[in-house]
Design goal:
Organism: Lates calcarifer
Helix content: 10-25%
CATH superfamily of the largest domain: Hepatocyte Growth Factor
Keywords: Disulfide bond, Repeat
Structural class: mainly beta
Protein name: Apple domain-containing protein
Strand content: 35-45%
CATH architecture of the largest domain: 3-Layer(bba) Sandwich
CATH class of the largest domain: Alpha Beta
Strand order of the largest sheet: 1-5-3-4-2
Length: 353
């Protein structure tokens, strides 16, 4: 039978079961189900449609793989009937919630990796509550009373993925201005504003847990503040490297030109946020949603702030192009696998029943 799934440029929520859109991949990620995969597609800057390999698929063993796809036309070039695969389209034109409620719980599924804390709980519901009440927790895996080895039964693993935008590239370049959206960075559970603490011309050597690219010391501070294991950070200006560090015992400072260090803030809203800074002479390449022509960098900043999909931008002065950009910030397990007597799910912080 000929199977076809027509697409208009409007909002299309439906997902088609047992249909594959082969080829045209822009990224491959892990998802526990097709709904989560569709949200990943919606948040990915280039994704227009997707195919998800369900755990019941018998013709392809890449279970839980979420293939994000794009074509110039926005249409899949090929549509093939295939058991165990669900396909659909980005929800970007539907004005989706940037922080979707992910209430589904997955039996016999492990969200492998990304652990930052473990505890023992009576059941998966209590594990999910622990995750929901910990601002750093994005998802969890709980090992039930039937799990083997027996010594790991009732263990609750709290897990982290980045809820704030990371810039995949940061490049010094004349004639460009970059910055962040002034909306969408705030945390509704934090009512108090604070300045945070930066130490100019100071390095805090050693104890690195992760290094990322950041556009400014304030951006690095935002990343450290989001990470549950970041005690403090050092930012190297000439290569835009942000070093997140973990040492709760001591903080040994060393004077060093070109390095700014600082402390995270977990319980108040940073007001000196990277969002408020305009970064002259810095390009944030890639992650483009679209571009438009505006008269100046301030207008580009305003356009980004007013677009709910935009998280950061780059403005090129010579041709007046304003590039609106975003990355995935929803909870995204680094790996999803089958595991007997494990239960996985997400924080319910974004679920307002």
């Amino acid at each position: 039978a000929c199977v076809s799934f027509s697409f208009s440029s409007g909002c299309d929520h439906q997902r088609q079961e047992n249909l594959d859109f082969p080829g045209s991949d822009v990224a491959v990620l892990f998802s526990p189900d097709a709904e989560h995969c569709q949200y990943l597609c919606t948040q990915h800057p280039a994704c227009l449609f997707f195919s998800f390999i369900r755990p019941d698929c018998t013709v392809d063993n890449r279970h839980f793989h979420c293939f994000l796809k794009s074509t110039p036309s926005g249409q899949p070039t090929v549509q093939v009937a295939k058991q165990g695969i669900t396909s659909g389209f980005s929800l970007r034109s539907c004005h989706p919630d940037p922080k979707p409620c992910l209430s589904q719980v997955y039996q016999h599924v492990d969200f492998y990796g990304a652990d930052y804390r473990q505890l023992f709980t009576a059941d998966y519901e209590e594990c999910q509550r622990a995750c929901t009440h910990d601002p750093a927790c994005q998802f969890f895996t709980f090992l039930t009373d039937d799990f083997t080895p027996e010594k790991y039964r009732y263990k609750c693993h709290l897990k982290f993925s980045w809820p704030v935008p990371r810039t995949p590239e940061v490049v010094a370049e004349a004639g460009v201005v970059s910055g962040f959206s002034h909306s969408g960075q705030s945390h509704e559970h934090l009512s108090t504003d604070c300045e945070g603490k930066l130490f100019p011309k100071t390095n805090l050597p050693g104890h690195d847990i992760e290094s990322l690219l950041a556009a400014s010391p304030e951006h690095c501070q935002t990343l450290c503040s989001a990470h549950p294991q970041c005690s403090y950070f050092s930012y190297v200006g000439n290569n835009f490297k942000c070093y997140l560090k973990n040492n709760m015992a001591e903080m040994v400072a060393k004077a060093e030109e070109g390095v700014t260090s600082g402390l995270p803030t977990h319980f108040c809203q940073l007001v000196n946020k990277c969002a408020m800074k305009t970064l002259e002479g810095i390009n944030l390449p890639g992650s483009d949603l679209r571009f438009l022509l505006v008269n100046n960098a301030k207008a580009c900043q305003k356009t980004c702030t007013e677009d709910p999909n935009c998280q950061f931008y780059t403005y090129t002065i010579a041709d007046r192009r304003c590039y609106l950009k975003r990355v995935i910030t929803m909870p995204a397990p680094p790996k999803v696998t089958k595991l007997a007597n494990a239960v996985s799910g997400f924080s319910l912080r974004n679920c307002h029943y």
